User: Fold this.
Amino acid sequence: MEQMIYALVSEKIDHGKLAASLSGMQGIAGVNLYAVLFNQISAVVSDMSRASQIAGKSTAIEYAGVIETLSQQFTLLPMRFGSIMQSNEAIIHMLERNYHDIQQNLLKVERKYEFGLKVFCDSETLMAELREKSEASPLPSATPAPEIKNSESRNWVNKKLKEHRLEELLVSYIDSVIEDITGQLDRLKTISKIKKMVTPTTIIDGVFLLDKALKDELIHAVGDLQNKFPGLNFILTGPWPPYNFVDFIVK
Amino acid sequence: MHDNVVDRCKDITILEVLDRVLNKGVILTGDIVISVADVDLVYLGVKLMLSSVETMEQLKSGKSIAGK
Assistant:
């Protein structure tokens, strides 16, 4: 029988606590959960008979629910949905092979929460504001070279230069917002991963790992940022298990 | 109006959950035997999320959803 793996849990404090917690929980499709232990790391698993039956949105959410519940009591590394191994022995060998990496990653996320921060803009309004700014202070290079006589070519060059200038202003604006965000969050000693311009309306998509005790300070800091940039929409989500801060691939 | 905001916040949360559980976390190589067939739901979800945010912005500025 195959085993679905939900999370890798640190058990260096209390070996009995995890087993007690799992006895009151259910895995996807209502099956029992149990721990497969190797040294101080346990894999939380459930038996499964037919893998094809569990592929779906609702089971993925159930799976996340198990990880979420466990993360409230234990330091853990979430597994990606669909992590299945052929037997308990195979899981033990996997824990043994990757023991050092798992321990290092568990240490990194110990007593920490992950938060997500997305910054949205009304792209039309933002571009209009930047266009206005660009037209108010054109770059010297915005004037085409005098040797371009033809008015059609001249217009085309002008248009391209304006577009380029607008793009530069947008990137520079987003960089300044990111600088403000990281400036605020560096005070909280967060580890961050930030992507910019994910879509025309999602200008920033970031994740942060920070000490559990600093949760309220993070919420306050994001509130300050929202006040500073009223034209943007800051959406903070979390606390999450540390999905985005697993930095190894199981061998 | 409040219920609409709550519903849309739930949509965002579900999308965030799916994004994490399907795309993040520890990756097992060679042992994965299933894939999520409805991955398109996530793509649809992104559009849903973006429209939700716009709706929330409208709500914030006092415009009604019916007037969309």
